């Protein structure tokens, strides 16, 4: 099996990262892979915002508000645990990246194609990280869709849409995942 095929087949979403730091070189290598993704009409619709600690701290009041709104319990201990969990999701990952795609209010087809291209770029980045021994988790949780997140990250909401956060770090363990059998998804037409 080629190294590329093996990289694609072994990649899994990683939910637990070790504390080992991810170097800037590793991040740059992954973004270099990202920017080589295909895009129609040369729009290069993707942007990658790598969040430092000051930026992550700006997200904390937002995730706290979201966690409180979600909590259906009056139990103070339970609420504290939820808040802790919400804060850790932002503060703990060794790398946290917001990925945006271009908005195009005049041309919904272009916007759809641009979204497809941005996902290609995101996955190039994910596979490049994996090639370097670094795992990732794509998150589309409510923090990635909140209007205050755009303000905290200085992302212009009128021209860019956050399509998710990518958390990255060295895996503590690699889950297994069953995929749909090839016979259920591949059809050779006459
Ligand atoms: C568009 C998209 C959004 C996702 N959002 C989340 C998320 O919010 N939280 C999460 O834990 N995983 C999220 N995932 C990861 C999926 O749960 C994961 O890819 C799926 O379980 C398949 O596992 P695999 O990546 O190991 O093949 C997302 C994946 C995609 C493609």
Describe the protein's architecture and organization:
Helix content is 44%, strand content 14%. It has helices spanning 3-10, 24-34, 53-70, 76-91, 108-131, 147-152, and strands at 47-50, 95-102, 135-139, 160-169. It has a four-stranded antiparallel β-sheet with strand order 1-2-4-3, covered by helices on one side. α2 (24-34) packs across α5 (108-131). The protein is globular and about 65 Å long. It binds flavin mononucleotide (FMN). Flavin mononucleotide (FMN) binds at residues 12-13, 137-141, 164, 177.
Q: Which percent band covers the strand fraction?
A: 5-15%
Helix content: 40-55%
CATH-wise, what's the superfamily?
A: NADH Oxidase
Count structural domains. 1
Average per-residue pLDDT, rounded, comes to 97
CATH-derived topology: NADH Oxidase
Shape: globular
CA-CA gap between termini: 29 Å
What is the CATH class designation?
A: Alpha Beta
**How many strands, which pairing sense, and closed or not: the largest β-sheet?**
4 strands, antiparallel
Q: Under the CATH scheme, which architecture would be assigned?
A: 3-Layer(aba) Sandwich
Associated small molecules: flavin mononucleotide
Total helical elements: 6
For the largest beta sheet, what order do the strands appear in spatially?
A: 1-2-4-3
What is the radius of gyration? 18 Å
Order of helices and strands: HHEHHEHEHE
Number of DSSP E strands: 4
Question: Which terms would index this structure?
Answer:
NADH Oxidase; alpha+beta; single chain; 190 residues; 4 strands; four-stranded antiparallel sheet; binds flavin mononucleotide
């Amino acid at each position: 099996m080629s190294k590329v095929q093996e990289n694609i087949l072994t990649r899994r979403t990683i939910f637990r990262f070790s504390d080992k730091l991810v170097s800037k070189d590793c991040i740059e290598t992954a973004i270099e892979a990202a920017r080589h993704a295909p895009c129609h009409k040369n729009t290069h619709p993707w942007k990658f915002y790598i969040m430092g600690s000051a930026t992550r701290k700006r997200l904390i009041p937002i995730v706290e508000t979201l966690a409180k709104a979600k909590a259906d319990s009056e139990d103070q201990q339970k609420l504290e645990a939820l808040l802790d969990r919400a804060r850790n999701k932002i503060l703990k990952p060794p790398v946290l990246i917001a990925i945006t795609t271009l908005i195009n209010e005049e041309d919904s087809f272009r916007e759809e194609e641009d979204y497809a291209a941005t996902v290609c770029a995101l996955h190039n980045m994910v596979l490049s990280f994996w090639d370097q021994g670094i795992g990732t988790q794509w998150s589309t949780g409510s923090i990635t869709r909140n209007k205050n997140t755009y303000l905290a990250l200085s992302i212009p909401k009128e021209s860019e849409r956050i399509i998710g956060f990518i958390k990255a770090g060295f895996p503590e363990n690699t889950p297994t995942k069953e995929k749909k059998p090839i016979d259920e998804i591949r059809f050779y037409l006459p």
